[in-house]
Q: What sequence folds into this?
């Protein structure tokens, strides 16, 4: 039976500060996350304004709002990174996301992994369609996976990697893939902003909203709850 999975985004890692080192130069505000503290120090270092001389930007949140959003100085957001784990996403999603070359990817290999029992990802438009349409989609995807396994059998005299790399040409774009992706916060902000626009691919819109939710606790000034 062909399993249908939905997207899941999990935060694996993010930048942590060396608080004693930063405290030698600048007070750390309790209301700021590690990322917000680091970005604030990076920005204030440019002007040696560690003592927060401007009352209007004394709070880190106000400082970042002005520096990032009003002045457009996003370079300081490159100092903090976050690593996300994407599961329940399709190979079509992979093709979309890897266009953003400022992210770093580690993706499961179809040459090594047997996709004969792979899950499939249903595009949002199919998911919202009539029951018959959904069932037809699952049936067609399942037949493609069966064709894949048949081709593996036809090539059983070849090494595993060669069988898989040849047979994978028959797999549909809706096959699930899993990937670890790292980016600095400027990169993530740009990707999420662009890929949640109405003209973006429907799946990547959905997944990038999940990514923003995972990134919110790291830097709520950059990734506010919506």
A:
């Amino acid at each position: 039976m062909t399993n249908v999975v939905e997207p899941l985004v999990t935060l694996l890692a993010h930048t942590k500060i060396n608080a004693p080192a930063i405290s030698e130069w600048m007070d750390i505000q309790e209301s700021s996350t590690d990322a917000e503290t680091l970005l604030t120090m990076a920005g204030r270092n440019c002007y040696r304004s560690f003592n927060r001389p401007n009352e209007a930007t004394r709070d880190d949140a106000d400082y970042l709002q002005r520096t990032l959003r009003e002045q457009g100085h996003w370079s300081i957001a490159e100092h903090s990174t976050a690593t996300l784990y994407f599961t329940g996403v399709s190979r079509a999603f992979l093709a979309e996301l890897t266009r953003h070359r400022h992210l770093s990817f580690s993706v499961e290999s179809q040459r090594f992994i047997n996709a004969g029992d792979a899950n499939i990802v249903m595009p949002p438009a199919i998911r919202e369609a009539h029951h018959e349409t959904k069932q037809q989609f699952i049936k067609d995807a399942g037949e493609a996976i069966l064709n894949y396994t048949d081709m593996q059998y036809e090539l059983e005299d070849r090494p595993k990697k060669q069988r898989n790399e040849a047979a994978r040409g028959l797999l549909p774009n809706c096959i699930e893939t899993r990937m670890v992706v790292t980016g600095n916060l400027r990169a993530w902000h740009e990707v999420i902003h662009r890929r949640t626009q109405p003209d973006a691919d429907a799946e990547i819109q959905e997944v990038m909203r999940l990514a923003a939710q995972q990134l919110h606790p790291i830097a709520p000034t950059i990734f506010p709850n919506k």
